[in-house]
Amino acid sequence: MRFQTLVLVMLTLLSLQPVAAQSRNDLPSCDLQTQRYLVGNTSGNLTDIRHAHISARANVLDADISTSQKARRMTEANADYLFKRVEEIRKQSGSFVKQQGFLSAAEKASFDREFDAIAGQLCE
């Protein structure tokens, strides 16, 4: 739980930096290696570690999409499209966990690839 609190504090501090001074590659989502190893918190509704990872990555992407939109680095339509893609992955991963009781390693890898593609659009 301390790790998640630390991650949330770090994300909050990053969001307080002047947005205009950031380049697209400074967004947390652009560091794919770190994002692939991001550990989510398994509490409340998130009981599966892989599902928690997907949720944590989705949260980071949502924050970075919002930051990019506010900085006018992307149109509202493009931001809405990316938000919808992230939300669809959230729903799909939740459905797998509901049906199976867990998210498989293969499903996690597939969702990570989709998140990488979204980050690629965000960070180009």
Provide structural commentary.
The protein has one domain. Helices cover 69% and strands 0% of the residues. It is built from five helices and no strands. Helix 3 runs antiparallel to helix 4, helix 3 runs parallel beside helix 5 and helix 4 packs antiparallel against helix 5.
The average pLDDT value, as a whole number, equals: 85
Q: What proportion of the residues form beta strands (DSSP E)?
A: under 5%
How many domains comprise the coordinates?
1
Report the major sheet. none
Sequence of secondary-structure elements: HHHHH
**Total strand count, please?**
0
Helical content stands at: 55-70%
The tally of helices reads 5
- Span between N and C termini? 33 Å
Low-pLDDT windows of residues: 17-23
Helix and strand composition category: mainly alpha
Rg calculated over all Cα atoms: 14 Å
- Please tell me what the overall shape is: elongated
Sum this structure up briefly.
The protein has 124 residues and is an all-alpha fold. 69% of the residues lie in helices and 0% in strands.
How would you describe this structure in keywords?
mainly alpha, 124 residues
